[in-house]
Design a protein that fits this description.
By secondary structure, this protein is α+β, with helices and mostly antiparallel strands. It folds into 2 domains: about 110 residues, Alpha-Beta Plaits (2-Layer Sandwich); about 35 residues. Helices cover about 50% and strands about 15% of the residues. It contains 6 helices and 5 strands, in the order αβαβαβαββαα. Strands 2-3-1-4-5 form a 5-stranded antiparallel sheet. Strand 4 and strand 5 form a beta hairpin. Helix 1 crosses helix 3, helix 2 crosses helix 4 and helix 4 packs across helix 5. The longest helix is centred in the last third of the chain and has 30 residues. It is elongated and about 90 Å long.
Length: about 170
């Protein structure tokens, strides 16, 4: 009984196609303020479509890339060491410094799916996953301004309450 050998077909890219992909990634990274690397393993096609739509609505671009091509495109683009890129890797990038990390984090949190932030580029430095998670949880600008105004206003309010209590005690 003859044995059947399965031929596993692998997708081989031509060298010219690889060079084009690397150039596209390089231009995307170079023109962005912030880049987030994420592992999207286990994401369904429906969730992937929703993620792309949410990112696009927020002005964030999204590309899936092979790790080897991405590492070639990242070589010399930022200071430090490239974070460990494990699993299936995608890149979210934007001219807004906080938007890519925040939008990926918020999407994963609201949809209760596992999107692992692997690291990224922030202020021309490679950063690890923990730093990108810290960046992702920074509140929006309006919330920070409201917190600042509240912080400045708090001592004045307390002083007014103290003066009111003194006036009531003397009356």
């Amino acid at each position: 009984m003859p044995t059947c050998r399965r031929k596993i077909k692998t997708i081989m890219l031509l060298k010219s196609k690889k060079e084009t992909i690397i150039k596209d990634l390089e231009s995307a990274i170079k023109g962005s303020q912030s880049v987030v690397f994420l592992n999207f393993h286990g994401l369904t096609a429906q969730n992937e479509t929703m993620l792309r739509r949410n990112l696009r609505d927020s002005g964030v671009n999204y590309k899936v890339s092979r790790k080897t091509l991405l590492k070639r495109a990242l070589a010399g683009k930022a200071e430090g060491e490239i974070p460990e890129l494990s699993g299936e890797v995608a890149v979210a990038y934007s001219n807004d410094m906080l938007a890519p990390a925040r939008e990926v984090y918020n999407f994963a949190k609201t949809n209760k799916i596992s999107l692992n932030i692997l690291g990224g580029i922030f202020e021309s430095h490679f950063v690890d996953a923990q730093k990108m998670m810290t960046i992702a949880t920074i509140p929006p600008r309006e919330v920070l301004l409201a917190q600042f105004v509240n912080l400045i206003n708090s001592p004045i309010q307390r002083f007014a309450v103290v003066l009111d209590q003194i006036a009531k005690s003397k009356a």
